[in-house]
């Protein structure tokens, strides 16, 4: 079994007030979930033909974006041949193409595409994170794996004091944010919010949570999520921040 001497091995071992740089280093070094470590590394050894010869990141992924954001996006996990390959969330796959296009449309990104690290992409006033930092088999992390990753999200929420809008990308991202709020002692809204594309939950501290279908191929290929639908989520976020 893989082990890790990093503070990430014990949620209580995270420094009380790490910098974002320190936190991201802990994330990259984390090997706490043997199943996820094995998967992220195995797909790098035998990639699809279209990626032969490319060197995969094959480590846990930190978040990406403006270090002092007002908009926070919470997704599921890196894609095996997207973020796990390129080393940046929502980069190098169709999900990233859709998401960054929508962020660019609403003025949160300086360009509409996300191909690789070093491609010039910058997020403005927005930060992308996830419930899980390693690519899970079949995109299905276990509850225990989600729980082990939660301290990273909690630390980000403590660091990002200016966040006023959160977008839950998919039900897992939506639920991860709600769990994180409870873990931080923030009172939940009443009645309990239900996930549904475009739905909103407003909290007493001034934060608004918006639900969005995840821009996975399962959703975009079937038409469950269209580009106008996704763009509208971030136009709404922009209007809330105005």
Q: What does this entry look like structurally?
A:
It is a single chain. The chain has helices spanning 20-29, 34-45, 83-86, 94-105, 143-159, 170-183, 217-222, 227-241; strands at 64-65, 71-75, 126-130, 165-169, 200-202, 208-212. By secondary structure, it is of the alpha/beta class. The chain has one domain (12-241): Uracil-DNA Glycosylase, subunit E (3-Layer(aba) Sandwich). A 6-stranded mixed β-sheet has the order 1-3-2-4-6-5. The longest helix has 17 residues, at 143-159. The protein starts with 19 loop residues before the first helix and ends with a helix. The model is unreliable at 1-12 (pLDDT under 50).
Task: Please outline the helices and strands.
Layout: H1 20-29, H2 34-45, E1 64-65, E2 71-75, H3 83-86, H4 94-105, E3 126-130, H5 143-159, E4 165-169, H6 170-183, E5 200-202, E6 208-212, H7 217-222, H8 227-241
Parallel strand pairs: 2-3, 2-4, 4-6
Antiparallel strand pairs: 1-3, 5-6
Helix pairs in contact: 4-8, 5-6
Quick take:
The protein is α/β, with parallel strands linked by helices.
End-to-end Cα distance, whole Å, is 49 Å
Query: How many separate helices?
Result: 8
Average residue-wise pLDDT = 92
Apparent shape? globular
Uncertain spans: 1-12
Please bin the fraction of helical residues.
Answer: 25-40%
The share of residues in extended strands comes to 5-15%
Name given to the CATH architecture: 3-Layer(aba) Sandwich
Give the tally of structural domains. Answer: 1
The whole-angstrom Rg is 17 Å
CATH fold-level topology:
Uracil-DNA Glycosylase, subunit E
Q: Could you spell the SSE succession in H and E letters?
A: HHEEHHEHEHEEHH
CATH class: Alpha Beta
The counted number of beta strands is 6
In spatial order, strands of the major sheet run 1-3-2-4-6-5
Report the major sheet.
6 strands, mixed
The CATH fourth-level homologous superfamily? Uracil-DNA glycosylase-like domain
Q: Output the structural class.
A: alpha/beta
């Amino acid at each position: 079994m893989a082990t890790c001497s990093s503070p990430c091995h014990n949620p209580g071992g995270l420094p009380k007030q790490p910098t974002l740089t320190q936190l991201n280093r802990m994330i990259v070094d984390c090997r706490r979930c043997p199943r996820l470590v094995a998967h992220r590394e195995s797909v790098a050894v035998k990639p699809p033909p279209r990626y032969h010869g490319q060197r995969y990141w094959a480590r846990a992924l930190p978040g990406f974006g403006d270090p002092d954001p007002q908009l926070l996006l919470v997704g599921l996990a890196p894609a095996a041949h997207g973020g796990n390959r390129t080393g940046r969330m929502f980069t190098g796959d169709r999900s990233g193409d859709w998401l960054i296009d929508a962020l660019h449309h609403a003025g949160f990104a300086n360009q509409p595409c996300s191909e690789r690290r070093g491609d010039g992409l910058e997020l403005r006033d927005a930060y992308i994170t996830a419930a899980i930092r390693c690519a899970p088999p079949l995109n299905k992390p276990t509850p225990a794996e989600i729980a082990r990753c939660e301290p990273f999200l909690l630390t980000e929420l403590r660091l990002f004091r200016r966040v006023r809008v959160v977008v839950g990308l998919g039900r897992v991202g939506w639920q991860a944010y709600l769990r994180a709020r409870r873990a931080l002692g923030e009172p939940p809204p009443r009645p309990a919010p239900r996930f549904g594309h475009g739905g909103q939950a407003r909290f007493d501290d001034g934060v608004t949570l918006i639900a969005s279908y995840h821009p996975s191929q399962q959703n975009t290929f079937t038409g469950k999520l269209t580009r106008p639908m996704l763009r509208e989520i971030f136009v709404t976020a922009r209007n809330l921040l105005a």
